[in-house]
C-alpha cells in the first residue's frame, strides 16, 4: 500500500463526503420549505460567504487561527495553511450549482446529481490513489481516476434511480450511457486539472458545475 494514504487523509475525505448534504439540500430544500429555488441559492451563497470569513479570520488573527488548527489542522494539507481550504472552494462550486438549479426543477436534479458524483468520486480518487496508486499522471494517479469513475458509475446506476423524487424530476430513466458519460466527465476532469495563465484552478470549483451542465444536456 502506498504510504500516501494517512489517517489524516482518510478523515479529511470522510468529512468531505458529508458535503453531499449540500446538493441534497439544493434539491430537496425548496420543496420541504415550500420556497422558490432562488432561496436555495441565497442560503448556499450565505454559507460560502461565511466560510470565506472563517478563512479570512484564521489567516489574519493568530488566536483564531490556532483555535481553528486545533480543530481541523490534522485534516488540512500543508498548502492550506496560507490559502483557502478545499471546503471553501467546494462551497464556491456549490454556489454555482445552486445558481444553476434555480433555472428549473430538472436543472436542480442535474445539480444534485453532478455535485454528488463529484463529492463521492473525488473522495474515492484520493483514497484509492493515495492507497493503491502506482501509475502517475501529473500529480494524480490512474488508479485514483479509475476509483473515481467506478464510484460515480455505481452511484448513477444503483443509488440515484431509487432516491425519492429524483427520477420524476430528472424526467425519465437514468440510462447506462448517460451514467458512463457523467462518470467519465468527473473522472477525466479530476485527473487533468484546468490551468489558466499557469494557475491550476481548484477542481472543487468547476467540476460540480460542469458535470451538472453536462447532465442537463444529456437528460
Main sheet overview: 2 strands, antiparallel
Which percent range describes the beta-strand content?
under 5%
Return the structural class. mainly alpha
Radius of gyration: 17 Å
Biggest sheet, spatial arrangement of strands: 1-2
User: Helix amount, in percent?
Assistant: over 70%
Which spans have pLDDT < 50 for at least 5 consecutive residues? none
Quick overview of this protein structure:
The chain has helices spanning 7-17, 21-32, 37-60, 62-72, 86-101, 105-132, 142-159, 166-170, 176-191, 203-218; strands spanning 136-137, 140-141, 195-196, 199-200. With 219 residues, it is mostly helical.
What is the fold's blueprint, element by element?
Blueprint: H1 7-17, H2 21-32, H3 37-60, H4 62-72, H5 86-101, H6 105-132, E1 136-137, E2 140-141, H7 142-159, H8 166-170, H9 176-191, E3 195-196, E4 199-200, H10 203-218
Antiparallel strand pairs: 1-2, 3-4
Question: Could you describe the 3D structure shown?
Answer:
The radius of gyration is 17 Å and the shape is globular. The protein has helices at residues 7-17, 21-32, 37-60, 62-72, 86-101, 105-132, 142-159, 166-170, 176-191, 203-218, and strands at 136-137, 140-141, 195-196, 199-200. It is mostly helical. 72% of the residues lie in helices and 4% in strands. It has a two-stranded antiparallel ribbon with strand order 1-2. A two-stranded antiparallel sheet has the order 3-4. The longest helix is centred in the middle third of the chain and has 28 residues, at 105-132. The mean pLDDT is 93. Strand 1 and strand 2 (140-141) form a beta hairpin. Helix 1 (7-17) runs antiparallel to helix 6, helix 6 packs across helix 9 (176-191) and helix 7 runs antiparallel to helix 9. The protein has one domain (7-218).
Amino acid at each position: 500500500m502506498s504510504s500516501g494514504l494517512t489517517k489524516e487523509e482518510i478523515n479529511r475525505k470522510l468529512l468531505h463526503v458529508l458535503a453531499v448534504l449540500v446538493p441534497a439540500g439544493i434539491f430537496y430544500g425548496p420543496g420541504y420549505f415550500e420556497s422558490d429555488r432562488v432561496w436555495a441559492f441565497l442560503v448556499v451563497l450565505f454559507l460560502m460567504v461565511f466560510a470565506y470569513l472563517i478563512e479570512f479570520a484564521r489567516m489574519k488573527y493568530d488566536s483564531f487561527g490556532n483555535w481553528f488548527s486545533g480543530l481541523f489542522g490534522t485534516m488540512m494539507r500543508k498548502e492550506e495553511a496560507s490559502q483557502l481550504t478545499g471546503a471553501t472552494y467546494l462551497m464556491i462550486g456549490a454556489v454555482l450549482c445552486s445558481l444553476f438549479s434555480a433555472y428549473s426543477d430538472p436543472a436542480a436534479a442535474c445539480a444534485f446529481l453532478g455535485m454528488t458524483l463529484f463529492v463521492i468520486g473525488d473522495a474515492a480518487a484520493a483514497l484509492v490513489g493515495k492507497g493503491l496508486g502506482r501509475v502517475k499522471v501529473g500529480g494524480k494517479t490512474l488508479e485514483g481516476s479509475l476509483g473515481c469513475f467506478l464510484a460515480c458509475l455505481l452511484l448513477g446506476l444503483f443509488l440515484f434511480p431509487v432516491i425519492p423524487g429524483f427520477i420524476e424530476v430528472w424526467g425519465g430513466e437514468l440510462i447506462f450511457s448517460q451514467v458512463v458519460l457523467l462518470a467519465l466527465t468527473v473522472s477525466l476532469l479530476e485527473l487533468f486539472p484546468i490551468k489558466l495563465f499557469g494557475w491550476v484552478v481548484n477542481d472543487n470549483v468547476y467540476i460540480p458545475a460542469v458535470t451538472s451542465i453536462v447532465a442537463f444536456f444529456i437528460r
